[in-house]
Amino acid sequence: MYRRQFNRCTQSGVIFDDVIRPGLEEPGEWSGPVTVGCVAGDAQSYILFCDFFDRVIEAYHEHKITSQTPESDFNYDNLKGGDDLDKSFAVRCEISVVRGVEDFCFPTHCSRGERRQLLKLARRALQQLEEEELPGQLFLLEELNQEQQRNLNLNPPSSSQLRIGVARDWPDARAVWVSKDGTLMVWVNMEDHLRLVSTRDDANVAEAFKCICTNLQKLEQYYKQLRHQFIWKQQLGWVTSSPADVGTGLKISVHLKLQHLPKHKRLQDILKRLRVHMDKTESPVLYRVSNVATFGQSEVALTQLVVDGVKLLNAMESRLEVNGDINELVPTQK
């Protein structure tokens, strides 16, 4: 594979060594979470190094790349439930979506000039969003004081981000836009060109999903008017710097209070069948449940997968609280 790829170079100068650097710099532990270990420096990387990227995408998302255009569905009314999660278990939810902007390199290969131009575009698009839909304010990271950084849960760049170039010239041209009602945040020039995040402390996934769909589509229109569309590839869907986010770029996570299920011997098998991932949080009884794949299903289908999975995990936890058996609740392999 390396012999076939090493002498290729995209028009913006991305070589194969740039692509695989994350995995070489930080290979991770065999027992740790699954990561892709590679990044795309620009949109052309997915074409020029397709022999490599296609294999990574298919392995990570467990979905075959075909000639068919990936399905997309932003009709939030098609979501069944999501506003009815048991509040005794579900305490918080977060939905995020990432997008890359046409004609610019991805953050690992982005120049300072490109980054500043991306910030100008974001400022204009978000200003239009403020005027027409959702009042908010843009904050430049370099102007934030320590208290503001804490309120935004903003951490300094990690060593891995520094090594692969994502944090080059930090914090120049990095920004975050926050809606006045607190329902939406838009991060600019972080690990991706744009990252929209909707967080709710009532775990109302349906409302968070509606917020993301509505405002993402508005921003897409504004960027088209600015003659810089979001990057879409025929066989992959929406593409950004990480192959782990291709397709929809959508991540849905719900924080659950669980005491018994995390200790169950079948937990990993159950999570695999549900196609979700569970992470520990700072609280010993609070766990973050989220989708793994972003490719192969529509936005509504992925959100539905997490909603249904969370409901089933809650049902299992309730059964275990009274020393019941959960084997009959375990789903068939998806």
From TrEMBL:
Domain Phosphagen kinase C-terminal: 89-320
GO cellular component: extracellular space
Entry similarity comment: Belongs to the ATP:guanido phosphotransferase family.
Entries under SUPFAM superfamilies matching the protein: Glutamine synthetase/guanido kinase, Guanido kinase N-terminal domain
PANTHER family: ARGININE OR CREATINE KINASE, CREATINE KINASE
InterPro entries, A to Z: ATP-guanido_PTrfase, ATP-guanido_PTrfase_cat, ATP-guanido_PTrfase_N, ATP-guanido_PTrfase_N_sf, Gln_synth/guanido_kin_cat_dom
Broad class of enzyme this protein falls into: transferase
Example GO BP: phosphocreatine biosynthetic process
Protein name per UniProt: creatine kinase
Occurrences of domain Phosphagen kinase N-terminal (ranges): 1-62
Pfam family, one: ATP-gua_PtransN
Keywords carried by this UniProt record: ATP-binding, Kinase, Nucleotide-binding, Transferase
MF terms (GO), sorted A to Z: ATP binding; creatine kinase activity
EC numbers for this chain: 2.7.3.2
Residues that bind ATP: 92-96, 195, 251-255, 279-284
